[in-house]
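Example 3.2
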Amino acid sequence: MSELAFDSATQLAAKIQNKEVSAVELLNYYLGRVDQYDGEINAVVVDTREQALKDAQRADEDLAKGVVQGPLHGVPMTVKESFHIAGTVSTWGNPALKDNIFDEDAEAVKRLKAAGANVFGKTNIPISLADFQSYNDVYGTTNNPYDHSRGPGGSSGGSAAALAAGLTGLEIGSDIGGSIRNPAHFCGVFGHKPTHGLLWMKGHAAAPKMRSTPDISVIGPLARSASDLRTSIDVIAGPDPIVARGYKLDLPDLNGRNLSDLRIGIWRGDQLAPVTKEVEDRVNLVAAALRDAGASLNEEARPAFDTSESHDIYSHLLQATMASRMPDADYNSLVAHVSTLDPADQSDAAKVFRGQVTSFRDWATANEARNKLRWAWHDYFSEFDALVMPIMATPAFKHDHRPFGERTILVDNAERPYFEQVFWAGLTGVAFLPSTVIPTGLNNDGLPIGVQIVGPEFGDLVTIGVAQELERLGFDFTPPAAYR
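Structure, written as tokens:
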């Protein structure tokens, strides 16, 4: 049964429905791997196996009656700790929320369960979902399955690590600054950041009963295959009941088109946020595969905006959204600090602080500027089907738990600001665009490197479709040697 550890969720569901393995057997197999390996990875931090075993038994009973619950019938999966599961805690990595137990599943979890998925636990995150690493004082540190001295990324780091190590069949995370895409890249799995608002976020919040969708933030799947991303979007996507009264989901697809029918842009790097040569080389590798498959490539065209202005807009809106999660005392302290800043101070730190306590007037100005970006992207994607670009500057880096202000990152031996890495996530995230991360194989140090495929708003099935085609060409998941 060793191949089950690294099968896709689609393959696992087929094996259950073909009765090659039962849902109970498959769940016990993954639980056994968690018990055997997770002590050294620390990815699965909340255990709901007792209920999962009951659900697996029900899945087998249904199948015996000829009833298939859905496309994920019996597939064991985990979800990011920040999602609500009835009877479990969602701390968001904050010790102050260690008793934050919810009595209802998140909407996405309900939809996954309705499709047959069997949720047996939750996976680790950084505090407040706000880091490229996944560690906190509630659950400890998650290690990268390819190298335990490195992190798996964040904030959906436990999600990607569990998938890569073969501890779970499917995952769902969230993304506001690359929190799906960064861990997918660091752990060599597939990840999809959907169009903003495509997946209802009810039940992904530190506070109970929240209904609003935070600016920029989305939820989305991580998997060992692009086909699983497609299945997950099909299962979870769709409007909330209010919007559904007048809107029906109808996403465009490749509609039978091959790579040879597509126009694809290539964006290797940007001087505002340099990437390592090996990351740039992987963009080139994907570009070469697309060219060989007959796609029409353009390496020069860009959307009509200045990237530094785009990044400033993103940073301002991001900081405002992240600060809205702060406890009152911390927020009030920030307000007091900003009042002491010199108006002439335009340092990065000053911009961060001002963004965190921005007025509605300033937020509205930034939002108007963001909508100009959206239209610039819309014009770009009137000519192109997709765009390939980096998602992070480097492969997974060594654990670094120093205060944020003391951290840097080495990009080909040049020391760069730690949070500069968010550039490639924010470039598309601020404009609500979908983005699919694919693995491109391991580097000389045995570390995965991914790239992102970006599309127009609501072009989610197009970017996933391109990912599926590239997966068939060999851009697929490579299991870490220690867990095969």
